[in-house]
């Protein structure tokens, strides 16, 4: 039995697009001994500084139990530091160490080079349109 779908498989296409983009990024991450998840954490910290762990989980799209293990390995490797939130002792905040910040800085150059290549290949307008459409889709699905 086969089912006829009218629309293309959007979740699969989004995953395929993600994997296509990540094929350019992963080699640099691996050179620095980072997993995709560790990079997402460092990217969040690089953008926002000291962040509560719940926000890290949301912005890096890592489930809480997995984030605990990721943060433990990153702390062991000297990339991040965790401490109780001075304003609310029930919460934990995370920040990149100098070593972690240096890694973000080095990798951001490589990643920005790739984004510039994408912009040249697709055109500035198309890339901006892609960002806009993805933002609209996200807002539509998560009002």
UniProtKB/TrEMBL annotation:
Highest taxon, organism lineage: Bacteria
Keyword Cell inner membrane among record annotations: no
Alphabetically ordered keywords of this record: DNA-binding, Transcription, Transcription regulation
Keyword match Transcription: yes
Coiled coil: none
Matching Pfam families: MarR_2 (PF12802)
Organism (species): Ramlibacter pallidus
NCBIfam families: HpaR
Gene: hpaR
PROSITE patterns: HTH_MARR_1 (PS01117), HTH_MARR_2 (PS50995)
Protein name per UniProt: Homoprotocatechuate degradation operon regulator HpaR
Domain HTH marR-type stretches: 7-139
């Amino acid at each position: 039995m086969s089912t006829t779908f009218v629309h293309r498989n959007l979740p699969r296409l989004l995953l395929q697009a993600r994997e296509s983009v990540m094929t350019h990024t992963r080699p640099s991450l691996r050179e620095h001994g980072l997993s995709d998840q560790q990079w997402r954490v460092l990217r969040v910290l690089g953008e926002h500084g000291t962040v509560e762990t719940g926000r890290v989980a949301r912005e890096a799209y890592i489930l809480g139990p997995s984030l605990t293990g990721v943060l433990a390995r990153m702390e062991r490797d000297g990339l991040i530091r965790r401490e109780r939130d001075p304003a609310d002792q029930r919460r934990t905040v995370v920040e990149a160490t100098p070593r972690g910040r240096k890694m973000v800085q080095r990798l951001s150059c490589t990643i920005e080079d790739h984004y510039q290549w994408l912009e040249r290949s697709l055109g500035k307008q198309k890339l901006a349109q892609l960002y806009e459409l993805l933002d609209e889709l996200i807002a539509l699905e998560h009002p």
